[in-house]
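Archive transcription. Copying these from loose printouts into the bound notebook so they stop getting lost. Printout 1 of 2:
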Amino acid sequence: MSHGIIIIPTYNEIENIERLIRNIFSLQRKFHILVVDDNSPDSTAAMVRELQSEYFGALFLEEREGKLGLGTAYIHGFKWSLKRDYEYIFEMDADFSHSPNDLIRLYNTCAKKGADMAIGSRYVTGVNVINWPMSRVLLSWLASKYVRVITGMDIHDTTAGFVCYKRKVLETIDLDRVHFVGYAFQIEMKFKAYQHKFEIKEIPVIFTDRTRGTSKMSGGIISEAIFGVINMKLKSLFNKMTK
């Protein structure tokens, strides 16, 4: 059994998924992979099934009935992983915006440097983003600043989706009470880990926008993040007052 598993949610990632899986399995440190596919019409899941015979016992696939959102895909993956013996559980995008080579750095930050949660951060040493238009870089950077101010978290990249969790973090967080399904899901998970006083460390990574496939970003996802953060913070304050 590998100590670590990479959860990769997919929807129409046929152009990326095989190359990404092969890249991860070529790393010096061995990880398992769980693909959570939301019924991709482009046959992403079929490609993963084909690769499972080649990577038997290390590549897993969970197929869902429809496009149910990033957050629910990760929750599904977390619960699946916690039923098994994985000590380190990762979030990773399918589009190569996260470099597979950085998985080992995230792992080492938790396994060797004492972090409970390691974040691949675009902003901890400046702005490390490639191929994004300036307007999107500014929006993302301001969103993280906004979240830091509202929540009080000392995290530079609060919306990052490249994360390694120690098992105990996901066992402690009540996954059934994680509310957000889109962009704000990443913020909520960090906030819950912060509230439980887990050791959170950021490591600098270079984020490269996808060159194949279609972005899943939308105005609704951004609105959820902006307004959801205020609601999340207010609820946490109310819970403190009622204890």
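Printout 2 of 2:
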Amino acid sequence: MRLWPASLGPASLGTVLALLLALCGQRGEAAVYVVSQDGGALTEVDGAVERAPVSVGAGPAGLAAGPDGTLYLTHPDRSTITVVAPDEARVLRNLAFAGQPFGIAVSGDGAKLFVGDWQGGRLVRIDAATGAAEAELAVGPEPAGLVRDGAGRIYVAERGGDAVAVVDGATMTRLARVPVGRAPFALGLSADGSRLYVGNVRTNDLTAIDTALLTAVATRPAGRSPYGVAVHGDRILVTNQESATVSVLDLDLTVTATIPVGRYPEGIAVEGARAYVANWFSDDVSVIDLAQMRAVARRKVPGGPRALVARPAFARGTAR
């Protein structure tokens, strides 16, 4: 059975599919976004064409992407979660949160949000459409970074407790509490989910957690104030606030490269062969070529960029 006209060769099939996806509003590219805390904005930073930032209100801090491309931003000082359809450059809704929302993760089906209450020391599961709280669990003080794995477990960096809480997202019960270094903030999960990497701000090191055993298996020096963690294949990328660099570590947690970036780097995200680093004090994003292992560009963004997220491919134009 022929799937295209006889006059249209198979080599042209990709062009036809791209046209069909564009007509349906699904262009297929992934995208990277950054939130600017001082500027109250959300900006796409990896496109060939620079888009105007989306105004999201004062003080956004945390950022997560749903499976359909919808973005969720936490505002700790406003007790609000902002829901954004970035391709439409508009805020869809604001969800009230009874507490100080900071770290955030999205369920696999996009129906639930997991939110860390910075002031209240809680993990709260809420309805992504209405913001209604469904369940909560006490965790350590100052829950910072949140990561969800493929099994539906939520990992919570307890910055004030020097540990990582492991929570079953479906039952909202604690599975484990894993001691790490001092002031853990950012978390990065390996592609296969077997390792969780934890940046410990006050001990300047990185802890690897075996997610099957739920124990720490190694802690090694990373850089000065490691505040962001991303995993790319067999490399772990760590932003170092106080030295304006990104450390690159191998799976043995040995530093193999150090890449200069902007001032006070925080969040980091990887998309394709590039990493993107939010430079809080430079008001820009460094773009790192992972083949060359060096920064190749800087993108200016509104003031105080802190968190980034890579949105999945084939999601653009579908967020509602």
